[in-house]
Design goal:
- The complex is a heterodimer of chains A (about 375) and B (about 250).
- Chain A is an all-alpha fold and about 375 residues long.
- Chain A has one domain.
- Chain A contains 15 helices and 2 strands.
- Chain A has a two-stranded antiparallel ribbon with strand order 1-2.
- In chain A, helix 5 runs antiparallel to helix 11.
- Chain B has a domain of about 170 residues: 3-Layer(aba) Sandwich (Rossmann fold), CATH 3.40.50.300.
- Chain B is built from 10 helices and 10 strands.
- In chain B, helix 5 crosses helix 6.
- The longest helix of chain B has 15 residues.
- Chain B is globular, with a radius of gyration of 18 Å.
- Chain B starts with 6 loop residues before the first strand and ends with a helix.
- Classes of the chains: A mainly alpha (about 375), B alpha/beta (about 250).
- Chains A and B meet through helix 9, helix 10 and helix 11 of A and helix 2, helix 3, helix 4 and helix 6 of B.
């Protein structure tokens, strides 16, 4: 591909179809409750898109994306919680004006690091900045020491475990195992109504597309090609004059930023944030979303997040005890049979068929770097 | 700084758990010289290149390139100082096209944000085309590197180094695994590209060595056994004993 166009025609079609699905078809066919559920699934898609860049393109498997999702979500939740904890709302507490869980834990004063979260702009910046800072520290510590592959995956998983333990243990500051709940308004706008949830669904969709466009830009830039090069021949990249660690740190931070935005949107749409979204299991689930969708494809990652979560909801409504087994089976099946996930199945099996049926004689080579063609 | 030598390797030693793969090795390379390193398997030839380009950290000694101490530098800094390295097995990016392989080696946009903002302008395209012609791959620019033959991958990697335009080029067995025809072609190519730079080559093929070498260093157990012109080295009884004799 000598042309460095931002998007090929196939990719534009893929984006348009996904946009139609999210902005037109889902709102038209789903009731309010289901639409809100899909909104929740889409917040996971942010993480999956970040993973498609880190893991799919760059070969950096993080099993700790839940940490960044959680950090973004907690930053948002802290702001909303402070707004909900006015002295009037909390008059029955022994210390009115602080979040209820702090009062239950005998705190008599708002901790200093909660103070900035009275301000929405600061909270919004923190939604991105806190996960990125955290990812930067991990990235510098790991990548400049050339920790990679399985070791990196295990260490990120350990971070997910540590973060959960920390949040649960520091109950008075974080709301503990229950998380931060009972969130009510955003600058006076009630986020619990059906109408608000629909609005938030669309905000979420727009943000997801913004993230997808950023991801597309990165993929199409020289940096995107470098990631693929690093995945295959790290030494060659190094001896072509690149500081490999910097590129890994960058893409890891970008994935963390995406996850943070997703987490904040989760908090807004679902109305709480808790350590169950931070730990090892959700972090691995997020990797599965990406794997099922096709880790090489950013659009595939979105479909993966939607499909797996939809299956999770449907299955756990009818067979709650079977879901985890199903999820494990799904992961094994994807890895063994469809290593490039749904996007791979599409571009290798379905698309050539379609073109054949449509009478085009053109032979279809696998798309560049397994790019999606939804 | 001693202007006579572009590269000064002095007392270079690396020890892996007590085993000295390179043992107090010293040699000097002049500008525009083509130095060939030969020696039996395990003599430490590849390790010497690894030490110069920073892939392996030396235990002691010094490597000074154009007045700069390379041992204190990171791999990418050594590359920017003007040292290029070709690996023994062809290392190309199989998932990328020939064009993209060459583009990533083009010496521009090496930082994170430089790479994000990098544009394929005419200068870049023209340079890539020029290099592709030199390495006989101008017809396959849009092909994925994975589909190239073994010999073509070797050429591509050499092309990736040429586009960096290093002052010191280090090649690890550039003709290994090539057919006779390819071998001739690459000898021609190498003879052309070593004209205006210093080169260190590791090679086993004696005919090829005689063809390109300015001077030859024979390594044995991490030490210099003999050094000089091909003729001198070939007639050195020590060399005949350990290496050429069988």
């Amino acid at each position: 591909m000598q042309s460095s166009a931002f998007m090929s025609r196939k990719e534009i079609i893929g984006f348009v179809i996904l946009a139609a699905l999210i902005f037109v078809i889902f709102p038209a066919v789903l009731d309010n409750f289901r639409l809100n559920l899909f909104g929740k699934y889409l917040t996971y898609a942010f993480v999956a898109v970040g993973l498609a860049l880190c893991w799919g393109a760059g070969g950096i498997l993080s099993l700790g994306q839940g940490v960044f999702f959680g950090l973004g979500g907690y930053c948002m939740a802290m702001f909303l919680k402070l707004e909900a904890s006015t002295p009037e709302n909390t008059a029955i507490q022994s210390t009115p004006g602080i979040p209820d869980f702090m009062d239950w834990n005998q705190l008599t004063e708002l901790p200093w690091w909660w103070e900035p979260f009275y301000s929405l702009p600061i909270a919004l910046i923190a939604v991105v900045a806190v996960p990125v800072m955290f990812a930067f520290i991990i990235g510098v510590a790991m990548f400049t020491r050339r920790v990679g592959g399985v070791y990196f995956a295990i260490i990120t998983q350990a971070f997910a475990a540590i973060m959960t333990i920390l949040i649960i243990g520091q109950q008075g500051y974080t709301g503990g195992v229950n998380g931060i709940t009972d969130l009510r308004t955003l600058l006076g706008w009630d986020i619990r109504t059906d109408e608000a949830k629909t609005v938030l669904y669309f905000v979420n969709g727009v943000l997801l597309f913004a993230v997808l466009l950023v991801a597309q830009y990165v993929r199409k830039s020289k940096l995107g090609r470098l990631l693929i090069a690093m995945r295959d021949q790290e030494d060659r990249v190094r001896f072509s004059g690149y500081n490999v660690a910097n590129f890994k740190i960058f893409i890891f931070c970008l994935g963390a930023a995406f996850a943070g935005i997703g987490g904040a949107m989760f908090t807004l749409q679902v109305g709480f944030m808790s350590p169950t979204l931070v730990g090892i299991v959700p972090s691995i689930e997020m990797v599965i979303f990406c794997a099922v969708g096709g880790r090489l494809s950013i659009l595939g990652a979105v479909y993966g997040a939607l499909l797996v979560n939809w299956a999770k909801t449907s299955l756990s409504e009818s067979f709650p005890e079977l879901w985890l087994l199903g999820l494990g089976g799904l992961f094994i099946a994807v890895v063994m049979v469809f290593p490039n996930g749904l996007a791979g199945v599409w571009s290798e099996k379905i698309e050539p068929r379609l073109l054949e049926i449509m009478g085009k004689k053109k032979s279809v080579a696998p798309a560049p770097d397994g790019a999606p063609a939804e | 700084m001693d202007e006579r030598f572009i590269l000064k390797v002095e007392d270079l030693t690396v020890s892996f758990d007590g085993f000295k793969a390179v043992d107090h090795l010293s040699f000097y390379v002049e500008p525009n010289e083509c130095r060939v390193i030969i020696g039996p398997n395990g003599a430490g030839k590849t390790t010497v290149l690894d030490l110069i380009c920073g892939r392996t950290k030396a235990t002691e000694g010094s490597v000074v390139f154009k007045g700069k101490e390379l041992l204190a530098m990171r791999e990418d800094q050594i590359v920017h100082a003007g040292v290029g390295r070709k690996f023994q097995t062809p290392s190309v990016y199989e998932d990328l096209t020939v064009f993209e392989n060459l583009e990533l080696s083009y010496p521009k946009g090496h930082g994170v944000f430089g790479a994000l903002a990098f544009k394929r302008d005419e200068t870049v395209r023209a340079r890539i085309k020029e290099i592709a012609q030199t390495i006989f791959l101008d017809g396959q620019l849009d092909e994925k590197a994975a589909f190239l033959s073994h010999g073509q991958k070797q050429w591509l990697e050499i092309g990736m180094l040429l586009i960096q335009d290093p002052e010191l080029l280090m090649l690890d067995e550039p003709v290994a695994g090539m057919s006779v025809a390819e071998r001739k072609k690459i000898a021609e190519l190498l003879n052309r590209i070593i004209q205006d730079r210093s080169v260190i080559v590791i090679e086993h093929d004696m005919g090829f060595v005689a063809d390109i070498a300015t001077r030859v260093t024979v390594l044995h157990q991490g030490k210099t056994l003999s050094e000089g012109t091909m003729d001198r080295v070939q007639n050195d009884p020590k060399v005949v004993e350990v290496y050429l004799g069988h």
